[in-house]
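name: query_chain
kind: protein
chains: 1
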Amino acid sequence: MCRLALAPTGGPFLPLWLLRLLRETRARASAGRAAAADAVAVSLESSGTRSSWIPLVPGPSCPNLGPWNKDRAKLQDARIDPRQRNEEPPQPFEQCADLERLGATPNLTLSARTPLPISNSKNEPRTRLILVVLASLASCAVASASPSSEDDSTGDDGNVKGVDWTTISEEEDEIGFIQGVVVDLPPVASLESKYQKVEVYSSNHFGRVFVLDDCLQLTERDAPHYNEMFAHVPAFEYLSRFPEEERLKVLVIGGGDGYVVSELLKHPTVEAIDHIELDEGVIEVAKKHLPWKDAWESPKVNLVVGDGAEFVERQSSDSSHDGYNIIIQDASDPFWIGDDGEEVLLPSHVLYTEAHLTRIHELLRKREGVFIMQAETYNIPSNLKAIKRWREVLQSIGFDEPRYGSISIATYPTGQIGFLVAHAKDNTCDAATCKSDERDGDMKWGVNWPRVESQFKQHVWKTSYYHPSLHKSSFDLPFWVEKSIYEK
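structure:
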């Protein structure tokens, strides 16, 4: 796998599209196929300037990563605007001889200095970079073209030998978006469950990184953003209406990593938690390798391995079941968009159907409970349409004024995800006036916010992300998002 790290003195950064290129290069190298090494270019962005390109062109003085070509036509082909370059092209890398070893040393570290041609303007100083090349793109291509006969390119786990890192990337083809988290190799844990591949990696910045089928689920660093909101938003909204309730019964659907359950246990009024998770392998790995692994040890938690939709159907059809105060649905994405632009339904889609949500309402109605569900990011057009659709379904079922709340979380696509929260019955106001009637600032959406504040300080003050003011403001959305979700 190739790694190109930039340590700039003038502001450039590594563009996100390069993550995709790095991964594709790694795949070619792993398969032993030759990658084209005769015209590899790396895009660099410099703050206050337009994009420039650095061509990495093999040449006679450095076979693997040759000198800069002085020919203007070829510079243009490499996407360097001649008006933006110096009259004299930069000199070759000072340590070209070291590149000779790249074919046999994929993880070689090479440091070199070279000027980046950005502008001829006297008022705009040239940016100089220190390029730290770890098996650079060009050299990786050479290495993949000539694999060592003495050593396989991959180990038993499928990882490239001699490489101690990889990137867990998030791609949203619908909007042309890609981002990634660099993690160490080998993984801390890896398990093939009945349903998926379950992995835990380690990251210098993000801590433990939980991955299912190569899709990032959470990181230790920003997991509190999502999970604290999913636990405390419905709990405090319920308790603000029924402050004397001391025996809360909660159902958690999904969330096999256990973080939501661990947050719910901070509430002394939570008496019982039914946790239903489909994949036992997720729980097994989480118990061994995630910091909140002791959540399931509490006598308040009843862990059920099985299908969440089937569990809800059984419970709602049982006339003797007295329902729940809170239901939290921490489900995975219900669909993705195919190449033809149409929705491709995923297994968790059943948890977003009207039939399932109607059963959820039935289980909450007896206790006038609160429901919260994972509701995607509004930054992706198909997701925004789905948010509007799900909200309308909840409202038609009988939930009072479902609201979309936003969560800032760096490692999820576009850095944002949201939830829909709704009450099975509203004792404060009808749907026509509920949004605007704040009752002197104390009441909004049927929630007593001063009471939320006092209960938070009294019982659950140790949080990393959640606090009552953030809870209330999470429903303040960009105007275009609000119109898209709430307008008829």
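note: The longest strand covers residues 400-408.
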